[in-house]
Each structure stands twice: as C-alpha cells, then as structure tokens.
Amino acid sequence: MSLFDDDFYSTKMSPREAWRLPARGPLGLGNLPRWAIPAAGGALLIATLLAVCSVGMSADPQQEAVAAIARPSSGQGSGGSGGPGPYGLPGAASSGAGERQMSDTVVGAAAQVWPAVVSILGTGMEGEKSSSSRPDAMGLGSGVIFSRMEDKVRIVTNNHVVEGFNQLDVITLTGERRKATLLGRDQITDLAVLEIDGSGIKQIAEFGDSDALQPGETAIAVGNPLGVGFAPTVTKGIISWPKQTIPVTLGREGELDWEMEVIQTDAAINHGNSGGALVNLDGKVVGINTLKVAGSGVEGLGFAIPINQAKPIIESLIKEQKIKRPYIGVVTQNLQGLKGIEDLKLPKDVRQGILIVEATGPAKDAGLKGSDVIVELDGKPVDSTLSLRKYIYNAKKIGDKLAITFYRAGKKQTVNVTLEELKDR
Question: How many domains does the chain have?
C-alpha cells in the first residue's frame, strides 16, 4: 500500500529486489541489506571528529592540501629515470606520455574541486514517534560548495544526509566547524541546500554539463568517506552509463515508489561520500554522489544525481525551500497480484490498474471512493501507483485538471480532478 501524498518516502522497509535511497538508523548508518549500501556516512563522536580534523594542520592547511595534490612530479622527462614523483615519493620509470598526461589531468581536475568539498555533521535526530530530539544520534556525509551570496556560501548535498537532524554543522577542509542553515530539501530527488558563513572560503566548485557525458569517460569522485579523518578522498573511475534508470523503494511494504535517473560509475563511493562531487576531467561537477550497491560479488556500482537535473531543484530549494508538486490524494494498491478482486466486478479483460483504498483531498472532492479502480489518466492507460505518480509529477502542474477513468462496481466512469499543492504535514 502506498499513500499518494508522499507518505511513501518512509525510511523503513523490508528488502525487495530494488534499489533504495539510504535509510539511517540511530547512529546514521541505518539497517540496510548488504546489497544496498548508502553513501551516507556513519557516526563518530564530536570529540573524535574535531581531533581528527586538527591533526597535522599547518597555518594554511587548505592551500597546503591544494598544493599537495597539484604539485607536479619533478621527473617529467620522457626517459623516466625514476626521479621524485608526486607527494615527494620516488618516481618509477615512465610508462608513456599518455599515462603521465592522464595523471596530470586528474590531479588538476581534483585540485579545482577538492577545497570546495566539505563534511556535513548532523546531530540531535528527531524521534519517529515524538517531537523530542535524540542527542545521541549523529550522521556524517559530504557536501559541495557551489555558490556565494554576499557573506554566505551555499552547499548542495543529499536529503538523506540532513533529514531528521535538529542541528547541522559543516566542517571545512581546514577543519573549521561552522553552523549550517538548511535552506531547503527534497526527498524525491534526494537533494538539499545548506548555507554557512563564507568568510575565508575562497574555492567554489563549478557545475558542468552532465548531458554531455559519454560511456567510458573518466570520472572522479570527491568526498569524505568514513569521517573527516579521510577527508577529502579522491577516487577515479569511468562513466558506465550517463543516464541509468533505477527503481527506488522507500515504502513500508517495499513497493516500487519512484524511478531515479542517475549516472552510473565505478569510481569508489563509500560511507560518507553521500552529497560529494562526481567530477569530469575539466574539474567541473557533473553529479552529486548519492548511493552504491555492495555485497558479495558486487563491485564498482556507484550512482550520482546528474547535475543538469539537480540545477533546477537547487534553484527551487533556495527560492521556495521545497519543491512544489501536485497531488491527488489517494491511498492505493496495484491491482495486479491482489486476491479477491472478483468482488470489484471488473470486466474479465481488466487485470491491471490501481485500486483506491482511500480517497482524500482533491480525489474525494471529485467523487472518487475506496474500491474504485483507476485505469486511465487523461485517456492514457495506467497500471501502477508508480506510473500514476510519474505522470502527475512530470506532466502536470498544481491547478491542472486531470481526467481519471476508473471502474466502480463494474461500470466505467471518468471524473476531472483539480490537482492541488502537496502540503507539508
């Protein structure tokens, strides 16, 4: 059963053969099946976080970190005599100009984004059954500084990194901890925007064009896996699919609730990488890392939200603090697979559709009732709650009329529903 006013985005469910956005348990990791591991971070004590951040910091650690990854090897001759390599390590014999050029390109691309990647610490998670906070609950993820507005900078991250916490803090590359303000978040796209004091922050990441990505193209994942002690970490891989569609299930019964269009990459993405940057060789952010698949026999399956899809969402979150979407107001079940549908008196050829369990709001006002079976939207066949949701979110706007064709006691009827704005509850 799924509630078609977005109550379907619950963080607890039974495992099914589907992907899902990360859930989070009391300590920020959640109880996920082994094959579906979120990139969201785990929990660390604040004292540990701050201690790790401060270890080995120089007077200007941000500049030092950038200089370290951008420092070229002094042994660049084609003869490859084994001179000093990057980071002051002994260099091996040259294996060709092509590899050296690729290495230098990756180093330069990482240097453009590295300082703009931050850690996001959430504390004081709200309890599921009460409004009281849980001061022992913590979560850690990543974020990308993408714009400056006067004396503030803005950070994009994942919704699942920030959802449910009473307090959000950002830890910069220098180890500074700054209180963050949540400007807006959206569960469906799994995006959120934060704002912090921008004093002393110089590096801003630049967005690229995710529509231009091609299979086989090099990708770089930059984030803070396993806590700020490993922050930031750069991993390199390739783009497997620039536009991969994966089903997402977050409902309590495990039904498919949404489909995300994502970038598939084999660049290593680990706990804590959620909200970090997927970068092309031009040093531009082309995706926001969001989840991975892990388990026995599974390797190199990471996913990022394409930045071209993220841009309008980010703008709306800044302007409206949320994404305004239309809703119908029906609690539904997919007809196929249900037992006892003979009582619905459907024609023998009708075996697919959407059973209304309860009608509220616009649906109730239009005359829809429980036990009605929806079969068409605006004259087009519809066979599942997922297809219903996708149609109104992608093709309709608040205030639009939606023609719903349904069966009631064996009789086919059509009503027009005026879509209203989904309100926060």
Answer: 2
